Structures are given as C-alpha cells and as structure tokens.
Amino acid sequence: MQQERSPFQQLADLLEGVEPGQSPINLTLGEPKHAMPAFIGDIIRENETGFRPYPPIRGTDDFRETVASWIENRYQTGDLITAEKHILPLNGTREGLFHAAIGARDWAKTQPGKPTENPAILLPNPFYHSYAAGAHAMDAEAVFLNGTNESNFLPDLDELATETHLLDRTIAFFYASPANPQGSIASLQDWQKLIALARKHKFMIFADECYSEIYRTTPPPGILQACEGNVSNIITFHSLSKRSNLAGLRCGFAAGDADFLTQWTKYRNMAAPQVPLPLLAAGAAAYRDEAHVEENRRLYNEKYEAARRILGTDLDYQQPEGGFFLWLNIRAFGTDIAVTKKLWKQAGVRVIPGSFLARRDRQNINPGEDFIRLALVAPLDETSTALSRLKSCLLDQ
Ligand SMILES: Cc1ncc(COP(=O)(O)O)c(C=O)c1O
Question: Ligand 1: distance of its center to the CA of 210 in Å?
Fold first, then answer.
C-alpha cells in the first residue's frame, strides 16, 4: 500500500495559488468551535503539579472509574466494563486508532488457528485517515468497504459475510458509528452482525464511536449494548474532542476486550503517548458533566435547522442522524474537485472534496467523488453565511 497523504494536504495542493472570491469561511476541519466547558481551566490549574511526573500509561484510577460509570449510565451495561480491566486512556483517539492496528497484529498471533500470512484490515469508505495509516504501518492490505444506500451508507455486512477468505485473513475492522462523513448510525442489529463475524473469523473490531454524543434526537446504540455481556474481540474508542469541544486536550479512551488491552498496554507503555495527569483530571470532570454536552447538541441542531431552511430541497443531502457534517451530493454541478475550486474561488467557502476522504474500491469506484463535506462547526451566523453563499454559487449560474 502507498503512503497516504492526508485529505488536508491534498486540499492545500488543490487550492494553492487560488485566491478566495469573498472573505474566507473554512468548512473543512472537523474541529469543534463551540465553547469548552467552563470548569476545565480551574481543574488543570488545581492539578498543575501533576505536570512534573511522567503519567502512567493506564492513567489514574479516578479517570478510569469515571469512564466506567459514564459507560454504565450511557449504555446501561451494568458492571460489564470495569476500571480495573477494561479501560485505557488515550491521547485522543487518533493515536489510539493508529496504534490499535499494531495491537491487532500482535493479538492475531495469539489466536489459535488464525492465519498470519497476508493480513487484511477492513475500513469503511470514506474513512478516517489514521485507520489507513495503521494498516500502512502494519503492511497489511487495507480493504475499503463502501457504504451503500441499502446499508445506510455503512459497510454492507451481509455482503461481507460471503467473503470468507478475506475475513479469515482479516485482523481488524475499523467501523465508525456515527460515521464520518455521512453521519449514519449503526443499529443494534448491525453491531450484532459485526460481532458475530469477528468471533467467527477471529478479528478485532475497532468501533470508532467518537461522535457518539453528537446526535439529532436519539442516542446512537453503542457496540457495548450489543455484545450480550461478552466484550471479547471488541474495543470501542471514545473521545472528548467532539463531545466536549476539547480537541486540544487530547483525551479519550479505549474500552473492551481485557486480554487485548493487557497485551496492548505492554506495547503502548513503550511507544504510545500518555495523557498528562492534569489533563486526565480535566477529562474526568468533563465525563462527569452532561449539561455542556446537551448544550452542544442544541447548537448543532440549530445549525442543521438553518441548513434545512437555507438549502431547502434545491440541494441534495440527507440530514445526518449523528455527527456534525453535511455530506452534500454535488453531481448535478460538476465533479467534487471542480465544485470545491469554484466554491473557494467565487464564494470564499472552503470545503473538502469527498474523493479526498475515500479511496478507489475493488471495483475502481471512489464513493466520495459525487460529494463534498461541510463541517458545521463554526457559529450559527458564520455557518449560515457560508451555506447561503454556497447555495447561490451553485444555483445562480
Ligand atoms: C471518525 C474520527 N475518528 C477519530 C477522530 C480523532 O479524534 P481525536 O483524536 O480528537 O479523539 C476523528 C477526528 O476528526 C474522526 O473524525
């Protein structure tokens, strides 16, 4: 597999030397802009002596216990996930997802009867780039699985179930719900099908649930609700970046399979970044508070309502069930690349072409190429201005 270039590097190359036609508005980065919780600064100051020592890779009891209670409350999982055995803090899920691919290779070697030749790692398509970076680091074949209309834009698990040779050599499957960019949410049945495949074919599921708290009306079901009291083959990834507008805190967690985590912790203790102690204290406080998360959802919902009013039915998109992106079908107006350039040049609106977030699949189709992605992270007025400009630029020829 070729070394990947990030979608943002590709975009910078595409728009190099092209001046924005109006004051620039950037809708490319999935970086939350709503206020972070007011208490974060005080907690970091109160714990500042914790910057002196090296932080332990397993974090603090307080962080893991808080996360265990948060999981129990959010997913009604009783004592399935314990602070002692089932949780590891992460320096943001980006590094966790990347290092997980290395963990999967080591774990697969301990599974009796698991083929070790020619390993494959399954990814959704479009996908988050650190999954592909992990597959690249492992020299594993990255197999991109397109979502389709029929599968609610998530990888089609019924079709995948027929590919037994591929599944037998699969060591890990990165599966995101809510999905970035489409915002689709896996049902409990989807999660159950995925778990059954993982156990039958002995691979790890890396469930990327970092958008789990950003939803329109109904909380997305989590993989831990579908596992019937048994977390083997499952690691779920969560983050405070989107939930709490704390992308710069670099704090999240992995939870699930205790055997995988024990082995992975040994590796992580040599190579992965820890989370500084004052930041773990702040992260725990953020997980103890839901008021700011509710406000966050309200603000996103307000922007989706504005999008509905502004874009109306003239442009082709579906209100996503989760996440904070708009995945706009622009086929009627040209290629994603041409539309991206035009929006920047005429309207000063910077978007990301869908094809930069996906790869050509085994049928040589890039499922992103009819789309652009808009991140609705800026304040309401800025987002509304961008959407109005985008609409006029595309429709008023
Ligand atoms: C799907 C997905 N997974 C993981 C991440 C990583 O988030 P963080 O490292 O901030 O937890 C992102 C960030 O944009 C994302 O979109």
Answer: 6
Separation of 64 CA from ligand 1 center, angstroms? 20
CATH of domain 7-30+292-395: 3.90.1150.10
Q: Which atom of ligand 1 is nearest to the CA of 90?
A: 11
- CATH 3.90.1150.10 maps onto the chain at 7-30+292-395
Atom of ligand 1 nearest to the CA of 250: 10
- pLDDT tens by residue, 86-103: 999 999 999 999 999 999
By 3-state DSSP, what share of the chain in percent is helix, strand and coil, each rounded to 5?
Answer: 45, 15, 40
User: Is the minimum distance from the CB of 146 to ligand 1 under 6 angstroms?
Assistant: no
Q: What's the CA gap between 167 and 257, in Å, rounded?
A: 20
Ligand 1 atom with the shortest distance to the CA of 31: 14
Strand ranges, E, within 91-231: 120-125, 141-146, 170-176, 204-208
- The pick from 27, 67, 91, 128 for probing ligand 1's pocket by mutation, whose C-beta has the most ligand atoms within 8 angstroms, reads 128
- CA-nearest of 21, 81, 117 to 390 is 21
In the sheet with 371-375, reading across from the earlier edge strand, the strands are 325-329, 371-375, 352-353
Domain 48-288, what fold?
A: Aspartate Aminotransferase; domain 2 (3.40.640)
* Residue 247 CB–ligand 1 contact under 6 Å: yes
* Averaged pLDDT score across all residues of the chain: 95
Distance 94 CA to ligand 1 centre (A): 6
Give the model confidence (pLDDT) of 298-351 as tens digits.
999 999 999 999 998 889 898 999 999 999 999 999 999 999 999 999 999 999
Distance 174 CA to ligand 1 centre (A): 13
- What tokens does 128 get? 């988050």
CATH 3.40.640.10 in the chain is located at 48-288
Residue nearest ligand 1's atom 6 by CA: 94
Bond before 126 cis per omega within 30 degrees: yes
**pLDDT score of 1:** 46
pLDDT tens for each residue of 52-79: 999 999 999 999 999 999 999 999 999 9
